[in-house]
C-alpha cells in the first residue's frame, strides 16, 4: 500500500539527503539545485510535490504538474501532466516499487479525469527509469535521438 503526502518544508532535509545519494544524484544533479526547484514547485499552484511511503515508511519522491502551466507556450496540450520521481532509500531501489507506485498514482490521475495524458522525459541512458516507466504503462513518443526520451501514458480509451 502506497501513500502520497504533500511535501512540507519540514520534509526538505530528508529530500536533500536523498538528492545527495549517488543513485539519485547521478540523474537529478546537484542537490542544492534540486531543492531550489522543489521549493519552486511547492510554491506553485500547478504542481504537486509529494513524499511516497510504502507500508508506512517514506521511500521516495514524486512530483506531478500541469505540463501546460509549467511551460507556457510549449507544446503540452491541456490535460497533460508531467511527472518525475525517484526512490531515495537505497535499500528499496531495484525492487519494482517505483514501477508500482508510479502505476498506482498515474492510473488514479488518469481514471479520475484530472489528466488525459501524463508525460515523462527520462535521460535516455537512465535504463532503470525507462524500464520503470514502461512497466507503469508509458510508451515512447516520437524520438528525436537526443539525450531525453519522451514518453507518455494516456487515459484508457483516449
Quick overview:
By secondary structure, the protein is α+β, with helices and mostly antiparallel strands. 36% of the residues lie in helices and 26% in strands.
Architecture overview:
The chain has helices at 12-20, 22-28, 31-43, 67-70, 97-111, 127-135; strands at residues 2-6, 47-54, 57-66, 80-87, 117-120, 139-140, 151-154. With 158 residues, the chain is an alpha+beta fold. It has a single domain (2-154), classed as Gcn5-related N-acetyltransferase (GNAT) (Aminopeptidase, 3-Layer(aba) Sandwich), CATH 3.40.630. Strand 4 (80-87), helix 5 and strand 5 (117-120) form a beta-alpha-beta unit. The protein is globular and about 40 Å long.
Q: What's the CATH first level?
A: Alpha Beta
Helical amount among residues, as a percent range? 25-40%
Can you tell me the number of structural domains? 1
- Unreliable spans are none
The CATH H-level homologous superfamily: Gcn5-related N-acetyltransferase (GNAT)
**Protein structure class:** alpha+beta
- Output mean pLDDT: 91
Number of strands: 7
Number of helical runs? 6
Strand residue content: 25-35%
Whole-number radius of gyration? Answer: 15 Å
- The name of the CATH topology is Aminopeptidase
Biggest β-sheet: count, sense, barrel?
Answer: 7 strands, mixed
Secondary-structure topology with pairs:
Elements: E1 2-6, H1 12-20, H2 22-28, H3 31-43, E2 47-54, E3 57-66, H4 67-70, E4 80-87, H5 97-111, E5 117-120, H6 127-135, E6 139-140, E7 151-154
Parallel strand pairs: 4-5
Antiparallel strand pairs: 1-2, 2-3, 3-4, 5-7, 6-7
Describe the structure using short key phrases.
single chain, 158 residues, alpha+beta, Aminopeptidase, seven-stranded mixed β-sheet, 36% helix
